[in-house]
């Protein structure tokens, strides 16, 4: 049985008086791909940001491995081995591709840099060709690749991916999901994926959760949820997206 890497219990998060997360219980085990699906505004990105400490949850606890990180500062959470590729890519547009990757590596021992850079370029060959180009001049798909590669430069034990397929062409989406699968299969990387593209996410995931209005309403294996008539109606057949 894989040991839990991320354990979330009873987490409630507020923006002022508005409650965004309502008692979230969720686990990500070592070596798994776990996905969280739900419609826009369900609270998925808020959970991602709460894991990283901004905003802080008002009640509940978040554990990463042996450490309770509920009140840990964000920069220390990153040093513990959680890296996030945030929604909307958020690369540094004025910096070159190489400089963006250097920023990702800032929390790790410099002795690994060349090895990690070579791995990033092997994972996303286009970035090697574009390494001196400014991030802001890349296509949407290339920016997403850069955002993931930058997160990988931090040598994470847990990779948080927030809407990696957002706004991308279907062919690029397929490519991004294939890379996620390979990172997990070949490097044993644990991945927690928030995604509106339920079909791709559930096909990829070992386990999955569904979030509706700040609550977890269903969980199971990716294939169980893919086969669920409720999920198919809501997320896979042009229903409520």
From TrEMBL:
Q: Which UniProt keywords apply?
A: ATP-binding, Nucleotide-binding
Query: Which protein are we looking at?
Result: ABC transporter ATP-binding protein
Q: Which organism is it from?
A: Taklimakanibacter albus
């Amino acid at each position: 049985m894989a040991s839990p890497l991320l354990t979330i219990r009873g987490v409630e998060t507020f923006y002022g008086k508005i409650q965004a997360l309502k008692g979230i219980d969720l686990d990500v085990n070592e070596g798994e791909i776990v996905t969280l699906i739900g419609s826009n505004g369900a609270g998925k990105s808020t959970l991602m940001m709460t894991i990283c400490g901004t905003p802080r949850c008002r009640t509940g606890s978040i554990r990463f491995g042996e450490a309770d990180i509920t009140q840990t500062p964000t920069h220390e959470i990153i040093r513990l081995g959680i890296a996030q590729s945030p929604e909307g890519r958020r690369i540094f547009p004025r910096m070159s591709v190489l400089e963006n990757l250097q920023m990702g590596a800032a929390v790790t021992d410099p002795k690994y840099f060349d090895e990690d850079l070579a791995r990033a370029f092997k994972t996303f060959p286009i970035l090697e060709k574009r390494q001196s180009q400014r991030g802001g001049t890349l296509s949407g798909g290339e920016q997403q690749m850069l955002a993931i590669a930058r997160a990988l430069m931090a040598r994470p034990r847990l990779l948080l991916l927030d809407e990696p397929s957002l706004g991308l062409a279907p062919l690029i989406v397929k490519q991004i999901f294939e890379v996620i699968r390979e990172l997990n299969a070949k490097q044993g990387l644990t991945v927690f994926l928030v995604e509106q593209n339920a079909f791709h996410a559930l096909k990829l995931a070992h386990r999955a959760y569904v979030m509706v209005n700040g609550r977890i309403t269903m969980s199971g294996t990716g294939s169980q949820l893919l086969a669920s008539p409720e999920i198919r109606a809501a997320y896979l057949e042009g229903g409520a997206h």
